[in-house]
Structure formats: C-alpha cells, structure tokens
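Chapter summary example: a protein plus 4-nitrophenyl phosphate.
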Amino acid sequence: LMRLAEKIKLVEEVVSVPHYNVAGYTHGKLVYTTTEEGVACLWSLDTSSGLKTRLADDVYMVGNIVPDSPLAVYTKDVSRGREQQRAYLVDVRNGKRREIGEVEPRRITEVCFDGKTVALSTASEEAVELWIAKPDGSAEKVYQTRDLLFASSIYHGRIAGVGVLRGDPRTYEIFIYDLSDGEFTVYTPKEGASNRSPKLFQEKMLFATTAFGGERLLIYDLKEKRLEEPEYAYKDYERFDFTEYVLFDWFEGGRIWFVGKREGRTRAFVDGMLIPLPEGFIHMLTVVGDKVYASHSSLTEPRKIYEVDLTTGKVETVLGVGLPSRVKTRLDRAYPAKYRSFDGVEITAYVVESADASKPGPCIVYVHGGPWAEVADRWNPFIASLAVCGYHVVAPNFRGSTGYGEEFRRMDIGDPGGGDLMDVVYAAEWARGKGLASKVAILGYSYGGFMTFLATVKRPDVWDAGVAGAGITDWEEMYELGDAFFRRFVEILFGERRELWKDRSAAYFAENLKVPLCIMHPQNDTRTPLKPVLRYAAKLLELGKTFELHVLPEVGHAMTRMDDVFKVLFPAVLFLEKYISK
Ligand code: 4NP
C-alpha cells in the first residue's frame, strides 16, 4: 500500500506539471501562456531564433491575437480572486505594456480584438455590459442589459457575440452591435436554435448553430442577409461526424480552420485538411503559413504545444514536458463508458483506472462544474491526482453536459439537482456493478460541489464519503450575493422556477447527511460565495455530523496559482485516505 507521504508527493508532481496554451501568432512570435512559474504567465517564442520572452505575469484571460497587430490583449484579476479584472495590452516586439485604465476593475467574461479596437463583455453588480477600448488606453461603455451575453468577435466597427436574448433560457441568439450607429441587432437562423461564438470577417459571420439539426458551422452574409455553407479546399472533414464545433475562426483572408468534437475527443481541420495530432483534445490553434501551432492534451498527457508542418505532416513538440514516470505509470487507462440512467437516458462517463488500485477498489465519482461543460479526454489535474493516489475515477457527463447534442445539454434547465443528480447516482451504481468500485466517494468543484452537497443529503445511502469544493448549499442566499451575471445565470439554469430553489438546496436537508464530508472553499469566491457554505458548516456542527472545513485565504473561484490547486487537493487526499482507501 502506498504511504500517505508518497501520495502527497505524487499530487504535488501532478499539479506542478506546467501547461502550455497557444494564444496566437504575430510578428514572428508564437504567443502563449504557461504555468511554468506556478501561475499562468504570457510569453512569446521567437520561432526563428528560439528566444523566449515573458510578456506578463499572473494573467487571467488572453484575447485573440491579430496577425496585423503586434499587440496582445489580456486581463488580470486585481482583487485577490474576486474576479474584478483590469485589461492590458502588450506589444510582443518590445514587451511594452499599457493598462486600459478607463475600464475600472469588473468581471470580464470575454475579450476580443481586431487590431484597432478591443471589445469586452463584462458584468457589474447591476448590469451586463459591452465595452470598447483603444490601444491608447481610452475606453467607453457602449451597451448595457440584464441579459446574459458574451462578445466573441470584433471587426471594423462591429461586435458580435451570443446571449440569452429572447428570454428563452434554452436558446442562444447572436447579437451584432454596430459601433457607428449604436444599433444592437439580434439574429438567429431559426427560433429555438442555440448559436455559438460568431466570428466576423469583412461582411461575413462564421458561427455554430443547432438551427438545422445537430450543430453545424455556417456563414451569414451580413450585407446580403443570406446563410451560406462554408467552403473548404480539402475534404478530409467529410469523413467525420461531429457533435460540436468547439473552436473555429478565419485565417489568411477568408479561409477557415475548425476543431470538431465527438465523445470528448477532437480533430482539427485547416481549410478542410485534417491535422495529424494524437488522440485527445485540441485546446487552441493558430495557422502560420504552412505551419500550425496547437495546444493539445489528454486525460493522461498534460497540455503541450505542437508544431505541425502542413506540407510534410511532421509533428513536433515545441513547448511542453511529459509526466514524471512514476506519475505516468499510475495513470493506467482512460476511456469513455456508457450506462443507462434511472429513466433510460444514456450517459457517458470518462473512466480513469488507477494502476495502484485493485478491482474492485476505492473509487471517486468526479462531478464536473459548469454545469454546461464536460469531462473530455483532456488533462484534468483533479482527476489525474486522484488516479495516481490509488483511486479509480468515474466522471459522468450527466444530463446538461455539453458534447452530446443540444437536446441533452438543455435537459438540466428547470431541473438542476434533479435528473442530473440521478445520473451521478447511477454512475456510482454502474461502477459497483462493473466490479470497479468497492467504496465510493463523490467529489466535485463548483457545480460539482453543489451536486456533492445535494447528493450526500438526498441520496445518503449511495456514498461512503463526499468532498465538496466551492459548492452551493443555498440558492436563495447565493442569488442575493451574486452580481448581474450570476443572478441571471441562476434564473436561466432554473428556467425561472424559483419555487425549486429550496428543494435543490442541501441547507434544507442537512439532517439527512450520513457520511463524512470534506468541504473546501475559496474565501474570495464571487461565483459560489463562501457565506452560505459557512452557515451550512455551522448547521452540520449543531447536528453533530462528521465534517471538515477548509477555507482558502486570498483565493477566488477560478484558481490561477498551482499551489492553490494543491491546497484544495491536499486535504481531499488526507480525507479520502481516512474514509475510503481501506
Ligand atoms: P462553475 O461555477 O461550476 O465553475 O461553472 C458555477 C457558478 C454558479 C453556478 C453554477 C456553476 N450557478 O448555477 O449559479
């Protein structure tokens, strides 16, 4: 049996493996982020000389890079994790930085750039907003609403994005904001469709839509007001059938690259040509002449940057390191498995078997956040850490997850903590039935923390223990503490059914808790605030329940420092050792 100190050491190794992520390419430099220094920093790599330059430290979000401009736009959290951000521009040629000072710190949800103007979608206490800023640091708020919206593109006087703009919590419409006349236009190819991530080029808008069955990439001509099929020089993509187009954009004057996804694995195409990258997940790519730079990972490989030569098909790692061998050998096997839930709906779970656990052995049901997100075949330090510590991990993509079609994603709207919770319960049953799991703990962060709190009081007999990070225990209280963005988010998730809030809040069922609970929470979390969780812990204390509570000082919801990730995992490993490993 592995000793506890050995497990802690392995977790530290998993968490400190640096990640590399492509931001873009301009003026002979690959612009990327890396966590080499323990926190995400923005760097450039001169691809002819190999010289690396650090452009900014502790960055939060990086905008798209425009080949014509030497400027990269990024944001920093200036509030110790409260997600109040400032925006900056840095010149990749000389490292000169400038703050966009006229945008006071606020939640920034997206940032995009066309070389001349920066567009930001933001949220304050009162409103969701659109801002524009210039490279000289001047800025202006151009639009304000109570609807959820996200800017995804700016091009010569127009901003495009999506939002829940017609009041239907299930659909996302496109907006186009015209900077010349202030006109805000809402567009959808079909009522009831969900549209994603419009990208502007000249008079054309490339976007993903569910208007005509499964998700498709289409072009809308803004001048002709006409839908078109994208055209590609190569036809490799025709052999594949994707459920989602996770990334896409224009390059080199009107050509298109895209990344399609099926079953949590992606393939990238440049003008229709398949890019020969290993199995797993492509996080971002950029096309530079006859080369592609792509960041890629899998559940058993950390994020690296590959260079692909489009003419020879040769693939090389330009930035990235492998796992230490004692970590690598313990991550046995990662694969998707399917099971039926309580009502016959088919659920896919990613399973990572631990080479250090017997069968059946101790097992973690890992519940992802979002909830409109998924566990895909991409690097996840939580899952990898648990597997190297000797736990099999089963990570269900419960109803509401992305990746299985729009109907499936919408299944949690108006029912969070209902059918999706049962899918998670059935994941535990599946793991026991398959002979994989002996004892089972439920573990999750954010929406996964919410599910952990609720599952341990609503289905107390299913679990042997629970680990809830940044969770939700009381929707009413959380709503009151949220800003304009998160208040609207909760309304949409519940499909305006406020009467459900109580029934889906663990705070009202605390007496049902039967198993030990480990609670972790960032002190400065502004998405899932700490206060309701402290009240929940006080209630557990009064009721004489077994629990532990760890508050992470000066940390926010989206942990940016690797040592904070470690601080969340460290108590979890000690707790699981005590309650489920034997
Ligand atoms: P996430 O955070 O799981 O990290 O995306 C969340 C924050 C708030 C809510 C859900 C998830 N919410 O329902 O309000």
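Key point: Residues 562-579 form the longest helix (18 residues).
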